[in-house]
Amino acid sequence: MAHSEDVDHTSHGQSMGLLRVLGPAHVWALGVGIVLVGEYMGWNFAVGKGGAYAALIACWFAGVLYSCVAMIDSEVTSTVAAAGGQYTQAKHIIGPLMAFNVGLYLVFAYTMLEAGNAITLGFLVDTVAGMTGHEGGLDQRPFIVLAIMFLAWLNYRGVLATLTFNLVITAIAFSAIIVMFLATSPLLGAGEMLHKDLMSGQASLPYGWLGILAAMHFGLWYYLGIEGTTQAAEEVRSPARSLPFGTLAGIMTLLIAATLTWYVCSGLLPWEYLGDGVNGAVAPLFSAAQISGSNALVWLLGIGTLFATLASANGCINDASRAWFSMGRDHYLPAWFGAVHPVYRTPYRAIIFLVPIALIFALGAPLDQVITFSILSGLLGYTFMPINMIMFRKKWPLDTIKRGYEHPLHPLPAISLMALCSVTYFAVFLGYGTQLIAMIGFYIVVSLWFHFWRYRFVKRADQFTMPWPRPRGY
């Protein structure tokens, strides 16, 4: 029966795989490019949950969480250098059922993030049209569809062009945040910040300490997706050097960008407007630029928002398709998805298949629901990582296999990550408890499907591609 799942992955008798063409800058562009849109939209829902100070505290605690993610990923992925990222890690270290679930977490986190980016892009086009005299509101749907289709085509044609494009537009979007900070802060600009007035009284912590806890839900949005650097493991020239460097440089970039974004937006926008992502600030940095009164800043942050959404959606297509492709290649999904394009050397079937799923959510779901779906899928993936890291060090201690990078603080990052994930689950439950329970129920159902049906097609002996010795204790 398993033979019905076999698919030819060869061309002219040679094994067909992904191309190793990427360097550290491309890894940085993939990680930061996916995440930087979180500085341009979405994080401000944390202000609505708990106020401006709560959003800042959530920003820094989420920064600690993602720093732990980056350290763990840097060690494990530089050692397990294959497409699929955390899915491939789980496959080698824990087992097939965990790997299947982690693969789905990755696909849904990135696909929902892609949909959120497309929604923001449609809003931005509509806003710019209004600024240039277009009345009556612009139909955003064609621009949403066009953006997703164009980026899918770019990914289809090759990873080097895809991530080089991301490198350029991500650098511009990050530079726009720096310029916005310098132009509006007392450091070099006119000193337009009004933190004292906008954050006094009820505005500081309107819902008390419970608001800080609730804000952790959307605090993750500042950094969600940095773990996507692992998806490039099979396409970088030097995994041991490029993956740790790109990932750790990426999280440092995002910590700076997140803090500057909070400072600028909370100093220019009232917290009620900033925290209302429906009738208030959909794209807070762009709204802050409008408040500044500078046309140059408005256009710069408009371009920055556009580039950040494009870079994120572009990286999401890259990462989701690699996870889906890897699961197909290992027969966790139909092996048809594990095909590599004979010319462009991309997982083209996985790319094409995920496009309509992103479009359905981008065209039919509200932004906060899409963001929450992405956050929850990512959070479930982060919960597995401490277990994965502890088992990795236990099964293969430092002296048994060669690692591309060894993070020096084990097990502190794993323990910290588990604790922060637990807090964030409670924060999500406070505002989106029904959605949290529904998603966990969904993953339980698909786990049962995998265990009782799909697992019969999996060739366990073919999955372990790493030349490691037998795990200690086995």
Structure characterization notes:
With 474 residues, the protein is mostly helical. The chain has a single domain, classed as Amino acid/polyamine transporter I (Up-down Bundle), CATH 1.20.1740. 68% of the residues lie in helices and 1% in strands. The chain contains 18 helices and two strands. It has a two-stranded antiparallel sheet with strand order 1-2. β1 and β2 (14-15) form a beta hairpin. α11 (239-268) crosses α13 (284-292).
| CATH class (first level) name | Mainly Alpha
Class based on secondary structure composition and strand pairing: mainly alpha
> Could you name the CATH homologous superfamily?
Amino acid/polyamine transporter I
Mean pLDDT: 86
The N- to C-terminal Cα distance equals 31 Å
Major β-sheet annotation = 2 strands, antiparallel
Q: Strand tally, please? A: 2
What spatial form do the alpha-carbon principal axes imply?
Answer: globular
Number of domains: 1
The parts where pLDDT drops under 50 for at least 5 residues are: 1-14
Describe the secondary-structure layout:
Elements: E1 10-11, E2 14-15, H1 24-35, H2 37-40, H3 45-50, H4 52-79, H5 86-93, H6 96-131, H7 141-157, H8 159-184, H9 195-198, H10 208-219, H11 239-268, H12 271-275, H13 284-292, H14 295-329, H15 348-364, H16 367-395, H17 412-452, H18 460-463
Antiparallel strand pairs: 1-2
Helix pairs in contact: 1-8, 1-11, 1-14, 4-10, 4-11, 4-16, 4-17, 5-6, 5-16, 6-7, 6-14, 6-15, 6-16, 6-17, 7-14, 7-15, 8-11, 8-14, 10-17, 11-13, 13-14, 14-15, 16-17
